[in-house]
Structures are given as C-alpha cells and as structure tokens.
Amino acid sequence: MTERQRQVLEFIAAYLEMKGFAPSMQDIALGLGLKSRSNIHRVIHDLKDLGMVRLSPGKVRTVKLIDQSVDKLIAL
Q1: Are the beta carbons of 9 and 16 closer than 8 angstroms?
Q2: d(CA 63, CA 14)
Q3: pTM score > 0.90 for this model?
Q4: CA distance linking residue 65 with residue 38, whole number of Å
Q5: Residues 26-64 pLDDT 10s
Q6: In the predicted model, is pLDDT for residue 68 greater than 90?
Q7: What gap in Å lies between CA 26 and CA 29, rounded to an integer?
Q8: Measuring CA to CA, which residue among 28, 24, 11, 12 is closest to residue 61?
Q9: Structural domains of the chain in order of their starting residue, each with its CATH number
Q10: What average pLDDT does range 13-21 have in this prediction?
C-alpha cells in the first residue's frame, strides 16, 4: 500500500466516524489538500482492487471500508 492510499483510507475512516456517512471524491480531495478529484478516483479504485474498499457504481458517497481484521488474524 502506498502512502497516498493509506492517507485516503485513514481520511475515509475518520470521515465516517465523524459524519456517519461516506465522503465524496471532492470531500476526500479537499480533506487531503488536493486539487484534482481524478487522483482520488484512481486511488479509490486501486484500493478497491486491493480489497480495502467497496464501491457502488453510479452512486455518490458509496465508499465502504472492508474490515481487514479477520484476514489479519487468519494470516497469523
């Protein structure tokens, strides 16, 4: 996982905790001080490919974090 991917995951988790719903791509970009949503879009899809988040196509604010704790325990 890259540093940017980790930052995005941490931002999503904090946003969900504070607001109770998922951030938009714009929210993530603004929260991380980035001007381009396309970079966030790419990172989110990379995280999806890694199995870290789930998306619902065609909808806004659909980023869901996938709980990795069970996988980490199994790996031990």
Answers
A1: no
A2: 13
A3: no
A4: 20
A5: 999 999 999 888 899 999 999 999 999 999 888 778 888
A6: no
A7: 5
A8: 24
A9: 3-75 (1.10.10.10)
A10: 94
